[in-house]
């Protein structure tokens, strides 16, 4: 991977993180000699930490992010957040416009339906709630921030899997605290053990948690797949190697 004379031409890169790809990118960029800082929102109590410098917590909107980038002498920002973290991605696009500091968005491809899978594709979480039939036994694998819309569906039983468990979940729900990656074998066992009839997932596209889709397909369990939110236009790369190439190009051309 060509990155130019990185050590002699050290640049300051801000990665907006919170994903495995962001961690892989931080490691790869650190090896090139650039100064890399990863920013995390601070949602997870014990996050898996990336290589390089880390800062934790919100910036205070577009102005806060723009001010941080100027103050730290950031040369380039990589938005490597989760595809459903729409606000920070919009803020990154706006802060890049305001400051003129280039932005690259690392956006992994969406999951494609496995052979033989049954997918009900919905545009948002409200539609996912509405798509569930009465009496369904539902595995929710959508994290912990979007659970509330499902609370009124007392006619279904919910098994919710997430990394950190928030307060205030319905007492009737079954809660599983777990962090991927998960194997297909383990996912099939989980679906069988809880007699799951429906799986709800965001179209995250992350390889580490994709096994649930093959498991559901094999057991003919329908997946309610929530589409990604729309994000503002940006230079998009689909993988860590592509991000490294785009960053190298950006620094060579300025
Ligand atoms: P969000 O709704 O897009 O962002 C809400 C606010 O949180 C932002 O306005 C920003 O606050 C702060 N924030 C978000 N990501 C940040 C980051 N990397 N560094 C500093 N501040 C950040 O985000 P979210 O959906 O709550 O996701 C939060 C984090 O969890 C992201 O880093 C994302 O990669 C990760 N994550 C999200 C999901 C998901 O399903 N949404 C799943 C896995 C991981 P200020 O405006 O004050 O700067």
Summarize the model shown.
The chain has a six-stranded parallel β-sheet, with helices on both faces. Strands 6-11-10-7-8-9 form a six-stranded parallel β-sheet.
Notable features of this structure?
single chain, 254 residues, alpha/beta, 12 strands, 30% helix, 21% strand, binds NADP nicotinamide-adenine-dinucleotide phosphate
Account of the 3D structure:
Strands 3-2-1-4-5-12 form a six-stranded parallel beta sheet, sandwiched between helices. A six-stranded parallel beta sheet has the order 6-11-10-7-8-9. It is α/β, with parallel strands linked by helices and 254 residues long. The protein has seven helices and twelve strands. 30% of the residues lie in helices and 21% in strands. The structure holds NADP nicotinamide-adenine-dinucleotide phosphate. NADP nicotinamide-adenine-dinucleotide phosphate binds next to strand 2, helix 2 and helix 3.
């Amino acid at each position: 991977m060509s990155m130019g004379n990185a050590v002699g031409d050290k640049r300051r890169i801000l990665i907006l993180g919170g994903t495995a790809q962001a961690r892989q990118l931080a490691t790869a960029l650190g090896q090139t000699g650039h100064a890399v800082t990863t920013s995390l929102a601070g949602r997870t109590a014990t996050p898996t930490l990336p290589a390089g410098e880390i800062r934790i917590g919100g910036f205070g909107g577009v102005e806060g992010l723009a001010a941080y980038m100027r103050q730290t002498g950031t040369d380039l920002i990589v938005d490597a957040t989760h595809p459903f973290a729409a606000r920070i991605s919009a803020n990154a696009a706006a802060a890049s416009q305001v400051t003129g500091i280039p932005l690259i968005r690392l956006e992994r491809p969406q999951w494609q339906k496995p052979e033989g899978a049954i997918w009900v594709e919905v545009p948002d979480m409200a539609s996912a709630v509405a798509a569930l039939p009465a009496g369904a036994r539902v595995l929710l694998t959508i994290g912990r921030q979007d659970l509330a819309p499902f609370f009124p569906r007392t006619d279904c039983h919910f098994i919710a899997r997430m990394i950190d468990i928030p307060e205030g979940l319905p007492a009737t729900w079954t809660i599983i605290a777990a962090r991927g990656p998960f194997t297909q074998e383990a996912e099939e066992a989980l679906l069988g053990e809880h007699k799951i009839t429906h799986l709800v997932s965001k179209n995250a596209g992350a390889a580490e948690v994709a096994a649930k889709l093959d498991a559901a397909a094999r057991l003919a369990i329908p997946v309610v797949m929530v589409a990604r939110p729309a994000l503002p236009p940006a230079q998009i790369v689909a993988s860590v190697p592509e991000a490294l190439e785009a960053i190298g190009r950006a620094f060579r051309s300025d």
